[in-house]
Amino acid sequence: MMFPLQGAQMLQSLERSLRKSLPESLKVYGTVFHMNQGNPFKLKALVDKWPDFNTVVIRPQEQEMTDDLDHYTNTYQIYSKDLKNCQKCLVSPEVINWKQHLQIQSSQPSLNEVIQNLAATKSFQVKQTHCILYMMAETIKKLVPSLLEGKNLSPNSGKPEAICQEMFKPSSLDVTHAALVNKFWHFGGNERSQRFIERCIQNFPTFCLLGPERTPVSWNLMDQTGELRMAGTLPEYRAHGLITQVIYSHSHYLNKLGFPIYSHVDKSNTTMQKVCKKLDHITIPCGWNQWHCVPL
Ligand SMILES: CC(C)(COP(=O)(O)OP(=O)(O)OC[C@H]1O[C@@H](n2cnc3c(N)ncnc32)[C@H](O)[C@@H]1OP(=O)(O)O)[C@@H](O)C(=O)NCCC(=O)NCCS
């Protein structure tokens, strides 16, 4: 059986404990970090025991999960030190509602075996997405400095060349820009993803560049797990260095707020991989993993 952690002290202690298991705990660590900063998505943390937990599951409150088809809301983050224990924990419908369309996110690729085993017994279809995981060098320096050994960082912390300041003005997104972000988001393009994007815009700092029409031409967001996400540039403004500038400014602003900075990029997206390399965002061996589960 798993039970929810109650109160600020326990959650802060969980954050400190997860920090010792980075980078494998990164997705859960980032989420708990933001739960401790006001918890705007009203998430809860379940553990199998306390304080020496084996498995942590972060999930929304049941009352938030009213749409069985909304896998953007029905999203769980998992970290476990013991995969056998993890599988036992996840069987319970009080931990994961397997009757819904849902997503599981984790920086631990080894969770795949657990989820595949559960898919067979619980009768759901599962699609795994494995992407490249990046952490900003400044974040690594603070949290897991050993990962920087042997890395050649740029002398100017990846600072990009200035862009035309007459033409492009730095700004933030407002909720009416969710449709634009949704149109270019690889995992989006539907009404449910648009609602999720609206929630991200309302609750976390965003960054964009306004073009000559004074509307966003390049943008970057953050989600409830503290990850930088949904970057995009309008096709007619691409290859002018705009997203490089946006991500540089956004990540340095968030870093000053003390946030851990990380992101993922699809293995086929060589443009974004180039951007990350240029900005001293370092690849993390465990990778970024998401499982999309649909009941049969
Ligand atoms: C990926 C994307 C955000 C890049 O935005 P952008 O503003 O064009 O990026 P930049 O101009 O800063 O380009 C970064 C680098 O990639 C290069 N580049 C940009 N578009 C390219 C293309 N189509 N082919 C090859 N190289 C390209 C740039 O020349 C630049 O390299 P350089 O610094 O050596 O000159 C944009 O193509 C996009 O919105 N794609 C669809 C959504 C997406 O994939 N988002 C990212 C999710 S992680």
Automatic annotation (TrEMBL):
Subcellular location: Mitochondrion
Key words of the record: Acetylation, Acyltransferase, Detoxification, Mitochondrion, Transferase
UniProt xrefs under InterPro entries: Acyl_CoA_acyltransferase, Glycine_N-acyltransferase, Glycine_N-acyltransferase_C, Glycine_N-acyltransferase_N
GO BP terms: glycine metabolic process; response to toxic substance
GO molecular function, one term: glycine N-benzoyltransferase activity
EC number(s) reported in the record: 2.3.1.-
Reaction(s) catalysed (UniProt annotation): an acyl-CoA + glycine = an N-acylglycine + CoA + H(+); benzoyl-CoA + glycine = N-benzoylglycine + CoA + H(+)
Matching SUPFAM superfamilies: Acyl-CoA N-acyltransferases (Nat)
Transmembrane segments: none
Ranges for domain Glycine N-acyltransferase N-terminal: 2-205
Every Glycine N-acyltransferase C-terminal domain range: 207-295
Any one GO CC term of the record: mitochondrion
Principal subcellular localisation of the protein: mitochondrion
Source species, domain of life: Eukaryota
Keyword set includes Acetylation: yes
Matching Pfam families: Gly_acyl_tr_C, Gly_acyl_tr_N
Family that this chain belongs to: Belongs to the glycine N-acyltransferase family.
Protein's recorded name: Glycine N-acyltransferase-like protein
